[in-house]
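Bumping my old thread because nobody answered last time. Still need a sequence for this structure:
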């Protein structure tokens, strides 16, 4: 039996004998190669008709050896795998019937190893050319983390197929310094897909795998990690609990431990959705098979803000007003009459009536008119769904054309259903859309709640072209994690500090109105006669 010595320490000991003396030997264990290595391969799902398998491409391998610590497989298809006990099931994905030479290397103490090979003939019938072409662009395509999209990183239970535990807000991980830097390129040549990941020298590691990158601690962090080199990618049928209408049914496997941007161990990703510029995947760590991680990618290096890129959490329409009748449905909408207290608290100049809301030609029209009404110089309408329709969490979508005259102040907004009991701002207010004619084209999305009421609301705006001459879609997406404001599918404002706000503990109702003047509407054009907010539809999704 051979012995191994630490020659460096031995030399140092000789040089330092006058100070310390020297141990005779520094023994680091026996070098022992595994013996009696055997390797068996079983093609799964065979039959008399299909002796090489039914097209699934699955082969079960079993290796045994004396004194083996680990078994590493080279499957002969540019992929590899490892197993502590020698058992491994591999998926061959090349379409057709092919022979593969599979090699297993058993490693023992001191790094000594023994190898064995076996030949397998496998039939694989899987093919997904659409996913292949979207992934590679038919030649080569580079993907980036979709940092601008809600839930670009998420985690949830395997059982629900949704990131119920956590969803990252847009650009939430920007301060980490490396997560959004990765460029991931998939290329197609002669039917084979390859993958190259450029991580600028650092990878964002999940806390459970920090040791892989040589780190430690209790939080996710960026660690120096080498991702260079070209890896092979294979596509195969996915096996999961995701409903058929929420997945492509295809998974991709990246060889040699390849991964996509966030290190969570797996190299297999189920592709839930893919298009020319958007990809949504999920992966399940082998070390924790009860969790599913979700990642979104885009071809936009800036992270993918845009209508084609935004992925809503809510797709089931639960309520809608299409305004296809010839009158307003008063079983749904309430008229609020009057001017309130000090112009509804804002010094507004209009008097709300039940005569200024018209439903005709498939749209709702709220008219603000310069006319003497109950002692006020202007009339308008304000309608609500209070006590008739209220909901918590979801997406509101309103397609509208706005008034443009100086002094007009149209709004699409929401108040808490407990407004009558607790008052404002305790109830909370979500302004899906506010616009003033004196600042034509700037649309605001604003939140009011205790500590952020009145002029201290959490607000952000965006510019909308042709706001008064064309219909645009104003949206608000509301979950326990965040509130997102959009125009025509583009995200322009996102709020994530939801804890200890009224937006997480009760339902809200909808309000539509056009105010005149007041603290936000400003000076009214002295030549004003009439202007209108026209609404094509109001829809709510959960």
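Sorry it took so long. Here it is:
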């Amino acid at each position: 039996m051979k012995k191994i010595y630490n020659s460096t320490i031995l030399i140092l000991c000789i040089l330092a004998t006058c100070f310390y003396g020297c141990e005779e030997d520094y023994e680091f264990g026996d070098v022992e190669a595994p013996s009696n290595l055997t390797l068996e391969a079983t093609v799964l799902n065979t039959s008399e008709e299909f002796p090489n398998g039914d097209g699934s491409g699955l082969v079960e391998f079993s290796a045994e050896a004396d004194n083996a610590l680990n078994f590493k497989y080279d499957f002969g298809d540019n992929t590899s795998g490892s197993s502590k006990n020698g058992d491994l099931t591999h998926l061959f994905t090349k379409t057709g019937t092919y022979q593969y030479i599979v090699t297993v290397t058993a490693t023992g103490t001191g790094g000594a190893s023994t190898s064995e090979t076996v030949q397998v003939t496998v039939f694989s019938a899987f093919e997904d050319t659409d996913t292949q072409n979207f992934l590679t662009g038919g030649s080569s395509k580079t993907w980036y983390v979709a940092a601008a999209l809600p839930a670009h990183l998420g985690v949830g239970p395997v059982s629900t197929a949704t990131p119920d535990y956590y969803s990252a807000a847009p650009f939430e991980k920007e301060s980490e310094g490396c997560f959004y830097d990765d460029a991931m390129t998939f290329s197609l040549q002669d039917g084979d897909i390859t993958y190259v990941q450029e991580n600028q020298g650092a990878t964002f590691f999940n806390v459970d795998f920090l040791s892989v990158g040589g780190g430690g601690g209790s939080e996710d962090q960026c660690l120096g990690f080498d991702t260079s080199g070209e890896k092979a990618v294979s596509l195969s049928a996915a096996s999961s609990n995701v409903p058929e209408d929420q997945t492509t049914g295809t998974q991709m496997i990246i060889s040699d431990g390849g991964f996509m941007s966030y290190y969570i161990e797996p190299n297999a990703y189920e592709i839930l959705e893919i298009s020319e510029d958007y990809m949504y995947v999920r992966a399940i760590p082998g070390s924790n098979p009860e969790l599913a991680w979700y990642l979104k990618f885009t071809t936009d290096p800036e992270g993918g803000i845009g209508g084609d890129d935004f992925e809503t959490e809510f797709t089931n329409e639960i309520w809608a007003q299409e305004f296809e009748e010839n009158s307003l449905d008063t079983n749904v909408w309430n008229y609020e009459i009057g001017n309130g207290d000090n112009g509804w608290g804002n010094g507004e100049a209009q008097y709300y009536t039940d005569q200024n809301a018209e439903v005709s030609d498939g749209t709702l029209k709220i008219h603000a008119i310069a006319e003497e009404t109950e002692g006020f110089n202007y009339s308008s309408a304000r309608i609500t769904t209070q006590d008739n329709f209220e909901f918590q969490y979801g997406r509101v979508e309103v397609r509208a054309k706005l008034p443009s005259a100086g002094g007009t102040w149209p709004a699409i907004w929401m108040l808490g259903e407990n407004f009558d009991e607790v008052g404002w701002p305790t109830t909370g207010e979500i302004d899906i859309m506010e616009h003033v004619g004196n600042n034509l084209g700037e649309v605001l999305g604003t939140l009011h709640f205790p500590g952020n009421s009145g002029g201290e609301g959490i607000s952000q705006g965006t510019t909308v072209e042709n706001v008064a001459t064309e219909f645009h879609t104003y949206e608000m997406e509301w979950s326990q994690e965040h509130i997102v404001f959009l125009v025509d599918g583009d995200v322009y404002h996102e709020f994530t500090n939801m804890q200890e706000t009224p937006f997480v503990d009760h339902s809200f109702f909808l309000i539509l109105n056009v105010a005149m003047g007041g603290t936000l509407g400003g000076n009214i054009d002295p030549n004003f006669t009439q202007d209108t907010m026209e609404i094509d539809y109001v829809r709510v999704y959960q």
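The longest helix spans residues 7-15. Let me know if any region looks off to you.
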